[in-house]
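ok so i was messing around last nite and threw this chain in just to see what happens. nothing serious, just curious
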Amino acid sequence: MSRWRQPGRLARTRRLGDNAGMARDDSWAQALRVGLPILDGTRPSGVLGWVPRVAPVVTQAAVGAGHWAAGRRRRALAAWTSAAGYGLVAWGQGTEAPTAAEVRQNMQQNIQRLQREGVLRNPGPKAPAAARTPTPAARRLERHLSRAAPFFKATDTPQYRLASPVVGMVLGVWWGLRHPRRLTVLAIASESYTVVFYVPWLARAVQRRRPRTAAGWALVIAGSVARLRAAAAEPLRKQQARSR
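result:
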């Protein structure tokens, strides 16, 4: 008798499996509902808000100009395609993306909806923590965090937010004029990562009916593919890479 599973037990096992599958589907849908608005971005405001959006446009345009001056037409066109894509994305974020206030409101509504559905717990009154002596490890961690606190404060200053994209543009132009030198597995992996990374942004823009943003991400992806084809047709020599 123990070798054979009873029909009722088999049906109960199937019901448990179906319920577990439905729970996984609900969890995945809830995670998408919370995570997808992150792909919408935020409408930039002020100079510090626009500099990170414009920086990729300037970088790719400068890279294209350098390749064009050196006679590498395909590499130049690939870089300019990416520059046009980033320009459309910046334009779309300035006209189609929600404002910071709308993003906070939508996030609060999603949290309240999840709380009503029982997915998240309502924050209740917190009990006062009992006073206790910190351990030596906790004191060491607090000491290290206090030393790093000035650095994290500096990253939130206007000077850092302005200087960081400028440094990124300089390094991006230097890198773009030298890489990829030729079509290799590493170059394919690098550009494929760029393509795969931006596909969700493209799909979200299409879903939300934002034509400028969708066209911009499509051009960015096309620029990555064109960069690989240009690397195969116009390989860089070591002497050329060093001279730049």
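not much to say yet. The two ends are 81 Å apart (CA to CA).
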